[in-house]
Specification:
The protein is mostly beta strands. It has one helix and nine strands, in the order βαββββββββ. The chain has one domain: Riboflavin kinase-like (Elongation Factor Tu (Ef-tu), domain 3, Beta Barrel), CATH 2.40.30.30. A hairpin with a 2-residue loop joins strand 5 and strand 6. It comes from Marinirhabdus gelatinilytica.
C-alpha cells in the first residue's frame, strides 16, 4: 500500500548542499556523508549533493519502519556520530517520476537543526527544472512511513 501526498518545495538551511554561508561543512553534508553511507551498504553516489525540502503541511509524517537504518555514522569530527533513517519514495515533478529517498537524521542522535514532522527532506538525482514553491507529489510505502 502507498501514501500519495502533495507537497510544496521550500527553502531549507542549505547545509546539506554546502550553500549555507555559516555552515561548518562548506562542501555540504551530503557530499561528506556519501562515502560513509556507501561503506555501510547504501550507495547514493548518483544522487545530487543536497536535499529537497518538501512541506506537506498540514499533514505530518510518522516513522514506522525505515527502508535503511545506518547507525553510529561518524562522518565528521564536528558533531557526534549520528543514526540515519531512509525511506523509499518516488517524486512526481512536472509529470516526470524520480526515484528518491527520504533522508532523516535520527532525531534521537541529531543534536542540532531539527525539522518538524511536516517537512520531508529528499535526496534524489538533480532535477534542474525544480524551483521553490513548486508543487510535487511524493509516493511512499505506507508500511515505512505514515502520513496523516
Amino acid at each position: 500500500m502507498y501514501n500519495f501526498t502533495q507537497g510544496t518545495v521550500i527553502k531549507g538551511s542549505q547545509v546539506a548542499s554546502g550553500k549555507a554561508k555559516d555552515s561548518p561543512f562548506p562542501s555540504g553534508t551530503i557530499k561528506m556523508q556519501k562515502p560513509f553511507f556507501k561503506k555501510l551498504g547504501l550507495d547514493i553516489s548518483s544522487y545530487f549533493n543536497g536535499t529537497i525540502n518538501i512541506s506537506i503541511h498540514p499533514k505530518q509524517f510518522k516513522i514506522l519502519k525505515p527502508r535503511y537504518i545506518l547507525e553510529n555514522v561518524e562522518w565528521t569530527d564536528v558533531i557526534p556520530s549520528e543514526n540515519f533513517l531512509f525511506f523509499f519514495s518516488i517524486l512526481i515533478c512536472k509529470n516526470k517520476a524520480y526515484d528518491a529517498l527520504i533522508y532523516l537524521p535520527d532525531p534521537s542522535t541529531k543534536k542540532f537543526h531539527f525539522k518538524d514532522n511536516s517537512t520531508l527532506e529528499i535526496i534524489t538525482t538533480q532535477i534542474p527544472t525544480l524551483n521553490y514553491n513548486d508543487h510535487i507529489e511524493i509516493i511512499t510505502y505506507s508500511n515505512e512511513l505514515s502520513i496523516e
